[in-house]
Amino acid sequence: MAKRFIDTEIWDKEKFCSSSDKQKLLTLFITSKCDQIGVFKMANMLVTAYIGSPVTEEDILSIPVDIEKIGEGKYWLSNFCKFQYGELKETCKPHKKYIEMLKSEGLVERVSKGYPKGINTLQEKEEEKEEDKEEESNNTMSWIDEADATYLSICENFYKRLVELDRVKKNTEWKSKSWYDAFRLLLTTDGVSTEEFNRVMKYYFATPRTQYTPIADSPVSVRSKWQKLKDYQQRGSTGCKIDNSNLDTRP
């Protein structure tokens, strides 16, 4: 039976914590079910059965770890080998198999030669942190440059309403990829209509904190609990009067 190392600190990482329940489950599922070099082959019916709901390519590519598509129905966790094995060496018998598998997928050149976990110097760790910050900054700029103004506007209006209701810190960064993706997927992949979205969001803002609200005031939480929130809205469980003015998060 194959065994995998798991990064126990993943539960403390903001990107993972702000992901939907489905994304978190997919992350653990793919990490467990991929092969020895991190390649995961999609089998729609099987994945749907395990996860409990339909899984799309967009769902897989949106999980909060480094993953990319390398073929039709085939995905790769690009940091898998480095985390699991450290530096792959031809002189290490178990590594030979992994190197051959990487070659067969055309990925051997993509796996950089690093150090085994635990022997990095303090200076090297600091340099890696700076590189990660620079890469994150570049990635942020790239997605914003290509972002749809409609969903950015929804994020901004959502943030402004939370500020007015004193339900979020004023220095919260609303222009984030996780916020953008949550609303975009809710209104596209999840098939929520504009009318339904506006109606339920009005209920969301009108509901006092003493009654039902998602655990965190964020688009990611709204999306992960959408069906429950909609059910509450339809039943009118709070009995509160909804002010229809200035609550629309649409542009």
Strand line-up of the largest beta sheet: 1-3-2
- Biggest sheet, open or closed, and with what strands and sense? 3 strands, antiparallel
Radius of gyration: 21 Å
Tertiary shape = elongated
How many helix segments?
12
Nearest-integer average pLDDT: 78
Q: N-to-C SSE series?
A: HHEHHEEHHHHHHHH
Q: Terminal Cα separation, in Å?
A: 52 Å
Overall SS class: mainly alpha
How many distinct domains?
2
Q: Which regions are unreliable across 5 or more consecutive residues at pLDDT < 50?
A: 113-125, 211-215, 238-251
Number of strands: 3
Percent of residues in helices: 40-55%
* Binned strand content: under 5%
Written account of the structure:
The chain has 251 residues and is mainly alpha-helical. The chain folds into two domains: 8-110, no CATH class; 149-235, no CATH class. The protein contains twelve helices and three strands; from the N terminus they run ααβααββαααααααα. It has helices spanning 14-17, 21-33, 44-51, 57-61, 80-85, 93-104, 122-146, 149-164, 177-187, 194-206, 219-224, 226-235, and strands spanning 39-41, 67-71, 74-77. The protein has a three-stranded antiparallel beta sheet, covered by helices on one side. Strand 2 (67-71) and strand 3 form a beta hairpin. Helix 8 (149-164) packs across helix 9 (177-187). The longest helix is centred in the middle third of the chain and has 25 residues, at 122-146.
